[in-house]
Write a structure and sequence with these properties.
Keywords: Signal. This is Pectate lyase superfamily protein domain-containing protein. The protein has 559 residues and is mainly beta. The protein has a domain of 108 residues: Elongation Factor Tu (Ef-tu), domain 3 (Beta Barrel). 12% of the residues lie in helices and 35% in strands. The strands form five sheets. It has a 21-stranded parallel β-sheet that branches. Strands 4-9-18-20-22-26-29 form a seven-stranded parallel β-sheet, with no helix packed on it. It has a six-stranded antiparallel β-barrel with strand order 10-11-14-13-12-15. The longest helix has 16 residues. The protein is globular.
Amino acid sequence: MKISGHRRARLAFGAALGALLALPAQAEPASPPKILSDPATMAANPLPDFSYAGYGFGLAPLPADAGTVIEVTDHGAIPDDGLDDTKAVLRALAAANAVKGKVTLRFPKGRTQITEVLRITRSDIVLDGAGDGNGGSELWFPRPLKLIDNSHDYDELRAYLVREKKYQVEPENNIDYLFTEYSWAGGMITVGPDKTRAVSYDGSKDARDPVLARGVAGKQFGRTLTVDDATKLKAGDVVQLQWFSVDGPKSAILKSLYGDTDLPIGSHHWSSPDRPVVVQATRIAAIRGKTVTLGDPLLHDVRADQPAVLANWRHLEHVGIQNLRLQFPAAPAFGHHLEQGYNGIYMTGVFDGWVRYLVIDRSDSGILTDNAASLTIADVTTTGDRAAHYSVHVGAVHNVLVRDLKVENPVIHPLSVNTRSTRSVFLRSTVAQDGVIDQHSGSNHQNLFDQVTLHIDPKQDKGAWRYRLWMGGGAPYWKPGHGLYNTLWNARLVISDAVPADAEVAIVSGLEGPGERIVGLHANRRITVSYDPAPYIEATGMAVDAVPSLYDYQLARRR
């Protein structure tokens, strides 16, 4: 894997900057936090094993075998000539699709101009370049999806926006416009199985996936599942474990999601009965009789009153995008939910995929995910001056690891877990301005923000300094903001110099969700933490040096 000189310089600068911003020395716990070391605390406040997030359930290295290499220059692309290279790139992509086995579509050094959507619809393919820095490979996308996307992939989403009257209304800015379909969907590079439903917003069009087996018994956080009939299953298969709200608002899965909460639970959890409320894509590790060993732990119990099925799932495997710069023009930003579609990557229907060593400049959204699992997104930097919607959006996915993300551009939701996201992790991510954590409603649960660094600018109100760190979005029909076991671990707040060194800053939330764990939230000023509803909270104001990263700690224990 290539690391450009530009990236090496940026990494060295980041390390130096981190040293300059190091917090004052303070007393640290001599042992791991009680939530990891005290049996009574652990029993009352369980933590999922987040270390399964990422490619190969967190244990497998990302592939290095390029297979057959298809050079886009061999099909007519000429970098840096100022002319459009789209047709040449599409010819090269067609040649790559004709290759059996592993294939790499290689982009040259310099700028390659693309004005159509690149659609990746096969497994075992890598889009590769010469690096994301100076002298590397730049993909130049001068036009938004609003102009170039001629598909009907988002017709269902468009109809939903009209039906639900999804308008962005800002009277002070004279804005009263319908949301665009590209606010959270679509990408210049779109990955997903051909002829599959790109979005699911119309319940009347829902159809359950073919059932391979019905679950009989399984324990939450265990890896074994008893099924009624294992004859359609085999070791190595990737399947989806699906829980449905079979009893409407009284469904047992909703209590497993949210516990004994008094918070209202939105109707979208049960109003589309053919749409699962929780989805876990996993690989079958072993089968013995009717006992199936799964590749990762069960999100929830499986039992008579909380049934689940193992379903067939159309998906791609081993798709990678790496060593590239995705460049967008200096076009205006029309506002929140009014994005025109300067989106980098839209990755759907993928298992065991990856994105690494990318710079994405001036995007509306850098990377969007949906209906995917076991992805690693590593060493991505989003830059630019356009106000973006998402940097990396983790939505309707399972076991996604976002590692070493750097958010240098202004982003409304810089770190976001969205509808139906489960056991996904933001690890060592840095937000350079207006850092917030977005837990975006819609049964997202068991997600981890681990060792993240957020630069924030608190404001003074009536003599007190205050900052809202958790800024969850989502409509009321998908509330609460999150389910059980979402966790913030060892997060560092870098508070601006506008706040006096001896000041105390109140770190607050809006109304979020039940079962949050907040351990080791600390800053370069004294802080207090207020979260609604009441979370498990430990070691506020101090870094957890004994276990700097919960993900790394759990991964080491598995190894």
